[in-house]
Amino acid sequence: MTTDFSTETVATASVPARPFPTNFLFGAATAAYQIEGAAHEDGRRDSIWDAFSRVPGAVINADNGDVACDHYHRYREDVALMRDLGLQTYRFSTSWSRIRPDGGPLNPKGIDFYKRLVDELLDADILPWLTLYHWDLPQALQERGGWAVRDTADLFTEYALDVHDALGDRVKVWTTLNEPWCSSFLSYTAGIHAPGRFSIAEGMLASHHLLLGHGQVVRELRARDESLNLGITLNLTVADPVTDAPADLDAARRIDGQFNRWFLDPIFRGAYPADIVDDIRAVDAAAVAEWEGAVSDADLAVISAPIDSLGVNYYHGELVGGTPPLVSPGGGEAPTDRATASPFPSHDGIFWHDRGLPRTAMNWEIQPSGLTTLLRRVWDEYAQAAGVTLYVTENGAAFDDVRVDENGIPRVHDAARAAFLEDHLAAILDAAESGVDVRGYFYWSLMDNYEWAWGYEKRFGIVRVEYDTQERVVKDSGARYREIIAARTLPESP
C-alpha cells in the first residue's frame, strides 16, 4: 500500500450556503478530570492526574483539577447551557477514580453522579456519548505498573462493565478510549502527561494494553447488547513531507506510522505496522523485544473486534522533513519546568517545518484542508471496507480570549474561533460530498477547562468560565455555533 501524504488546498472562491446531511449530529465534548472538580468528594480517590499535578514543575502554576469547572455540582446548569446552544449530543467521559476508586469495588455515589447527568441529558433531548477512559487512571493502579502491565486491561474491562450495568439502559453510544497515543507514548515515553514516565518499552506496552482493553470491552458490550454503537476515538494527523526528497518522505512516513498507523492498523487489520516496529527496533531493540513478548495473535484478534464508529480528533497537521528548518516553528507543549522527551521512539532526523499558516494560542497551525484529507484517507484505507462510520469527536482551538462588559452584559468577541469552527465544518462537508460517511462534529470544548500540563493557561471553550466565580459566558463562537445548528447550514462565505 502506498500512502499519499499530500494535503489538498481548499478553494478560495465564493462558496454558497451548504446544508448538512439530515443524519449529521452537532455536539461538543469534555472530559471528566478537566471539568468535574469534586476531586475528593463522595468517595473519589486520586487519579494519575491528581498525582502528576503535584509533581514540581509538571503543570504550569501547579494547577490541578480539584475544582476545575465544578461541573460535578453545576451539571444541571451546564446541560441547560447545552440545550440553549442547540447541541444534539454531548460527549463526556466517566471517571474511573470516581466509579471504582483506587481500582477497587464500585462506589455507588460515584456512579450515581453519571446516572443523574445522563438523565438530565435525556430530559433535554441530548444524546449521551460516553467515553470510558479519558486519561484518568486511578493512581493506585499506576503504582502497580499502570498501563504498562496487562492486568490493567482486565481491570479496565471490569470498570467498563460496571458503568454499563448502571447506564446501559439509557446510553447507547460507547467509546472505549480517548486518544491512546496520548495515554501511552505521550505519557509513558515522553513524560509530558501523567504518569510522566520516560520509557520506550513502557510506552509500547501501554499502547498495546490500552488497545487490548478496548477490544475486550467491545467484545463484552457486544455480547450484552448488539444494538449498542461501539467505537474508539483516535487523535490523528496528516504528515506532509517538505519535499519529495527521500529523507523528507521518510520523516513523514515515520510520523504517520508512529502517530496514525500504530493504532489504526491493529484495530482495522489485526497487526502493528512492521516498518515502524523495525524503526523502533533500530533505536531500542530491548524495548521491542519486551513488547513483542507481550503481544500475541490472540491479543490482536481481540483488538481488531469489529466496531461501529471511529472518532477522529483533529487539531492540526504536520509538515516534516529530514533536515532542520532555517527557523524552528516550535511545538505546542506546555513550557513547564520539568524536562520531557520525544513521544516518538524513532525521532532522530525528523524536523518540523512552518507552512506560514496562521496559528492558535497553542502554536498549532490552522489547516482545515488537513481534516478533509484525513477523513478521506481514513475512510478509503480503513473505515469504508469495515463498514465503520466516522465522527469528528474533537476539533477546536485555543485563543487568548478577552472578556468585555457591554452595557453590563459580559461578552467574548472571539472571531478567530468562530472562523475556525466554520472552516472545519466546511472541511467536513467537503469530505462528505466526496463520499466519506462522516456523521457528526463535536467541538472541543464546550467550555474553558483544565488543559492538562498547561493548567488553566489556555482556553478552548465556546463558553468562557470565570474560574473564581464559576460564571459561564457564551462566547461569540458559541452563539455562531448555535446559529449553524439551528439552520443546519453553513452560511455563504468567501
TrEMBL record:
Residue positions binding substrate: Q34, H134, N178, Y315, W444, E451, W452
GO molecular-function term, one example from the UniProt record: beta-glucosidase activity
CC terms in the record's Gene Ontology section: cytosol
InterPro entries: GH (IPR017853), GH_1_N_CS (IPR033132), Glyco_hydro_1 (IPR001360), Glyco_hydro_1_AS (IPR018120), Glyco_hydro_1_beta-glucosidase (IPR017736)
Enzyme Commission code(s) on record: 3.2.1.21
Family to which the UniProt record says this protein belongs: Belongs to the glycosyl hydrolase 1 family.
Name used for this protein in its record: Beta-glucosidase
Organism: Microbacterium schleiferi
Phylogenetic placement of the source organism: Bacteria, Bacillati, Actinomycetota, Actinomycetes, Micrococcales
